[in-house]
Automatic annotation (TrEMBL):
Residues 432-522 form the Peptidase S33 tripeptidyl aminopeptidase-like C-terminal domain. This is Tripeptidyl aminopeptidase. Keywords: Aminopeptidase, Hydrolase, Protease, Signal. The keyword Nucleus does not apply. It holds the Pfam family Abhydrolase_4. The keyword Signal applies. InterPro entries: AB_hydrolase_fold (IPR029058), Pept_S33_TAP-like_C (IPR013595), Serine_prot/Carboxylest_S33 (IPR051601), TAT_signal (IPR006311). It is an enzyme of class 3 (hydrolase). The gene is tap7. It comes from Streptomyces cyanogenus.
Length: 525
């Protein structure tokens, strides 16, 4: 896998998602109360802002470089970025209580005569860092970048912000259910243990994770930057965050681009359900490519032969775990590796995945294997605590946003209903996860407004945020426009895939603030 079960778009490996929830509620961070009719001079004065000390804080800008080995910091430094920590309340119901910090980076625009304001970014996850994204986003923006301050924000509990780390032995809560009831019962215990570790090690923070609080933090960032309104670019889960922010703070948004669109009607800890068919399609397309490159990878000369290789590896891992370097790969892990090999539709990503499958096939044949860099990274992520903080933050956001079924039998019934026709994806998308053992969310999900003017972007073959979801969101928002990339199994498109048609459409909107007159369809190159 790249990093998570939810990889999102971007130049470096991305985390997805999801990269829903009550009638347009005014948050504590939000609006002034509107009076009704004439009032006395005292009553006419604006109510005191309970967040004034956060909205008017002075930001101390500094170098983004944390040390000689900080690759992200070096890229930001070379691009002319500076970083700051924004103080926000842990609990917006108690703004005078405990505080945490949200880390941001900023590259200032140079076109002061036609300044469009600040463009805030979110690269997905949930749980993915965004602080390092302004340099590559500015390159995608081309000349339009001069008009914006491009701002990367690590959401609360993510990356360089105040951390939330449950000390997991893995970087992801996602697993395959395995074969039979015994395998599923192991996953029930695994999920319950992850939830218990979070309750034990981060119980003071868990109630305050979630997208609504992240949106409130974004508005504090807006105010601390001195901006009346902000524009927004979100990928994958970041599209859901953008929808929530625009619903909670409708007067604070300017231009909104949502790429890899999460349908809020499907947003929940089980939102991967329903993606199986699209993932099978992406696997077949990759198999076509691998067959055409049989000389390099040796996986088979036809699509069916390559798919047969993948199935043979899966079946072997189900019988006896594979030894790959120092790792043990069983039928709970192998389907997740396959799942996460399928989100970027380009030769580099296809080749990395093909090398990984080649290594797994060799291990299935009993050979001693040193995994390729992509596979080694995936195994380290899945089978060690190296990125525990990432998985912990992702779970805390998903589980904190919406409740999941609590009875394990619900998941077992869904797995049995899926049958044995799909042994790779259905066991992943229907499996139980720690949200089944989480405390109930503190807030209801946000009912997204249906008049959001936004530019939506999605590829028809996106295996994470499926195209049907983007089309549904567009149908509910007559004020939106949809940019469709046809014929690509690609998750996150703008500035990532290399479609001049998509990039030009987005940049024209960012430059003018005017949505296209009609929806746009872009052909794959």
């Amino acid at each position: 896998m790249t990093r998570s079960a939810f990889p999102a778009g971007g130049r470096r490996p991305r985390r997805l998602l999801f990269r829903g929830a009550t009638a347009v509620a005014l948050s504590l961070a939000g609006a002034l109360a509107l009076g009704a009719g004439p009032a006395s001079p005292a009553a006419a004065r604006p109510a005191a802002d309970p967040l004034a000390r956060y909205h008017h804080q002075h930001l101390h800008w500094k170098s983004c470089l944390l040390g000689p080995d900080d690759a992200t910091g070096k890229e930001l430094e070379q691009a002319g970025a500076q970083c700051a920590d924004v103080t926000v309340p842990l609990d917006y119901a108690r703004p005078d209580g405990r505080t945490i910090t949200v880390a941001i980076s900023r590259i200032r625009g140079t076109g002061t005569a036609h300044r469009a304001g600040a463009l805030l970014l979110n690269g997905g996850g949930p749980g993915g860092q965004t602080i390092g994204d302004p340099p590559w986003v500015r390159k995608a923006m081309r000349d339009v970048a001069a008009r914006y301050d491009v701002v990367g924000v690590d959401p609360r509990f993510v990356g360089r912000s105040t951390p939330l780390d449950c000390q997991w032995p893995t970087g992801s809560m996602i697993r395959g259910a395995g074969a039979g009831r015994a395998g599923f019962d192991r996953m029930v215990s695994f999920a319950a243990d992850l939830a218990d570790r979070c309750r034990t090690r981060a119980g003071d923070l868990l109630p305050y994770a979630g997208t609504r609080n992240t949106a409130r933090d974004m508005d504090v960032v807006r105010a601390a930057l001195g901006e009346r309104r902000i524009s927004y670019l979100g990928y994958s889960y970041g599209t859901y965050l953008g929808q929530v922010y625009a619903t909670m703070f409708p007067q604070r948004v300017d231009r909104v681009v949502l790429d890899g669109v999460v349908d809020p009607a499907r947003y929940s800890p089980r939102l991967l359900r329903g993606t199986e068919q699209v993932n099978r399609h992406a696997l077949r397309d990759w198999a076509d490519w691998a067959a055409a490159h049989h000389a390099a990878y040796g996986l088979g000369r036809t699509r069916s032969a390559v798919l047969g290789t993948v199935e043979a590896v899966r079946a072997t891992a189900a019988r006896t775990p594979l030894r790959v370097g120092g790792y043990r790969v069983d039928d709970h892990v192998l389907p997740v590796i396959v799942f996460n090999g399928l989100s970027q539709d380009n030769p580099q990503a296809y080749g990395d995945f093909a090398q990984g499958v080649r290594d797994l096939r060799r291990a299935a044949g009993g050979r001693t294997v040193t995994p390729s860099p992509w596979l080694a990274s995936a195994l380290e992520f899945l089978l060690t605590g190296h990125e525990s903080a990432y998985g912990s933050a992702q779970a805390s956001i998903l589980c904190g946003d919406a409740a999941a079924p609590r009875d394990p039998e619900t998941y077992w019934r869904d797995l049995r209903r899926a049958g044995t026709g799909d042994r790779l994806f259905a066991p992943v998308t229907n499996d139980i996860n720690p949200c089944a053992f989480w405390d109930p969310p503190r807030e209801r999900p946000t009912t997204i407004r249906d008049d959001l003017p936004a530019l939506l972007v999605n590829a028809t073959g996106d295996p994470r945020t499926i195209y049907r979801g983007a089309a549904s969101v567009h149908h509910r928002w007559p004020s939106s426009r949809l940019v469709t990339l046809r014929g690509a199994d690609q998750h996150a498109v703008y500035g990532v895939f290399g479609s001049a048609c998509v990039d030009t459409t987005v940049n024209t909107y960012l430059a003018t603030g005017r949505l296209p007159a009609r929806d746009t369809t872009c052909a794959r190159r």
